Amino acid sequence: MTSERRFDLASTDEPDGVTALEASLRPPGDSLHTTGDTGDDFADLPAEDARPARETSRAGYDVEAVSGATDPSREP
């Protein structure tokens, strides 16, 4: 990222120029991948036990079962 200030972005926009609204509509785990960090190294698991960040978040929650993933009227 450069030190130049961009005037065409809002303070809530992502570094890649995506608006905050567009970024909020991305699927869980589909964030920017500019650092090469794939999430496979969390918890210092051996390579054979590593789980990609698209399946398990670093926070430890199931990315398929996040809030809003189900219809509230169908919850027990």
What series of H and E elements makes up the topology? H
Q: How many helices in DSSP terms?
A: 1
Question: Uncertain runs with pLDDT below 50, 5 residues or more?
Answer: none
Biggest sheet, in brief?
A: none
What is the average per-residue confidence, as pLDDT, rounded to a whole number? 62
| Beta-strand content bin | under 5%
Shape: flat
List the helices and strands and how they pair.
Elements: H1 20-24
Question: What descriptors fit this protein?
Answer:
flat
Summarize the structure.
The chain is mostly loops and 76 residues long. The protein has one helix spanning 20-24.
Give an overview in words.
The protein is low in regular secondary structure and 76 residues long. The chain has a domain at 40-67. It is built from 1 helix and no strands. The chain has one helix spanning 20-24. The longest helix is centred in the N-terminal third of the chain and has 5 residues, at 20-24. The mean pLDDT is 62.
